[in-house]
UDP-glucuronate 4-epimerase (Buddleja alternifolia), 433 residues
Amino acid sequence: MALKAEEEQFLPSTPGKFKDKWSSGKNRQFYRCFASTSTMFLWALFLVALTAAYLSFQSFVDSGNKFFSAACGGAHWEKQIRSSAQIHRHNGFAVLVTGAAGFVGSHVSLALKKRGDGVVGLDNFNNYYDVSLKKARKSLLNNHNIFIVEGDINDGRMLAKLFEIVHFSHVMHLAAQAGVRYAMENPQSYVHSNIAGLVSLLEACKTADPQPAIVWASSSSVYGLNDKVPFSESDQTDRPASLYAATKKAGEEITHTYNHIYGLSITGLRFFTVYGPWGRPDMAYFSFTRNILQGKPITVYRGKNRVDLARDFTYIDDIVRGCVASLDTSKKSTGSGGKKRGPAQYRIFNLGNTSPVTVPQMVGILEKQLRVKAKKNVIEMPGNGDVPFTHANISSARRELGYKPTTDLQTGLKKFVKWYLSYYGYNNGQSVK
Ligand SMILES: O=C(O)[C@H]1O[C@H](OP(=O)(O)OP(=O)(O)OC[C@H]2O[C@@H](n3ccc(=O)[nH]c3=O)[C@H](O)[C@@H]2O)[C@H](O)[C@@H](O)[C@H]1O
């Protein structure tokens, strides 16, 4: 009880109820004054310590994140970039390819390098799918003297440094968070790469002097719930069915803004389900191949009223030709150092195959190529961002780019399967590696 009484006297109380042994007068004033000064001192000390800790943490984060990682920077690094950017043909380009360790990025980089353009790659090697495949593509590019910078398009200081080292004439922007259905699992990654990353890249391009012309990957998914076929560039694209599609559509609006304000020359390419050797393991044709060879079941989605889903599958070599033609027909950006000097080119093209194939037909082709029957599990398409069909109208690309796809799905999948077996091997139905 005594303790309780003692505790009580130091407990804060409602005004008028506070009891203390410092009755009244000078003693009490002195105590209060002393107590408040020392408390303030302690608080001030605490705040100083907190600020110091915060600042040192921030500079640690800055050095790790915002600027070059250990793999970047330094004289050797700059030398590799300069050498990779060297042009070996008359009037050739110096191209920065973002997403160079990706499927389309690696193919486009090789095509440009082979014809004598200077190519510098950029890729963050994220683990959305098997990183070893990205590293293998990187080795392939290295063998052709293409250097890939390991970095993120959100790293503005690193981008500024790249533009300082090389006066890129063009940027082929293919870095993105791909995949339609994964957007439900990890929505933020789409905002990070396809929105924030895009803006960061455009900021670097707008500030660069000279400004590069930009060609970048939009997507057939922007047509969303559009049911007017074939899809034309002038069709409505304001009903996306997935967050992926919404970020690609937003990218089209964002690039338009940079074209309008800063005079950046911009070409957006709406790719239609691109497939082929060195492809993406998250895509259906790729994962179906793996499962069929391993004797595992595949899930085939079906639309409402038992209607088969269909895609305008487009072979990688056709897409590469469309990308290169877009670079070749790009006009120069008109601004410099962040200031527009006049109107600049702004284009959007469909790059598809113009002959949709149903998913069960695609599976049938794979079964024939692999000589293995698939264990099919057919289910109704879940509400996960998928659209029932895609079909490109490519008249615009044909007219302006001379784009003419030449590979049907049968021929293209044959080439894919050949690559798959040589890359992963085939061992009693088990994929290895
Ligand atoms: O053109 C694009 O802009 C996009 O193309 C690609 O998306 P999609 O056309 O959806 O390709 P993909 O996943 O191979 O599914 C193909 C078909 O198989 C069906 N599908 C899929 C998986 C499955 O398990 N079962 C199935 O039936 C599925 O329902 C669909 O009908 C890119 O991934 C995307 O990043 C983007 O670039």
Observations:
- The radius of gyration is 29 Å.
- Confidence is low (pLDDT under 50) at residues 1-34, 55-67.
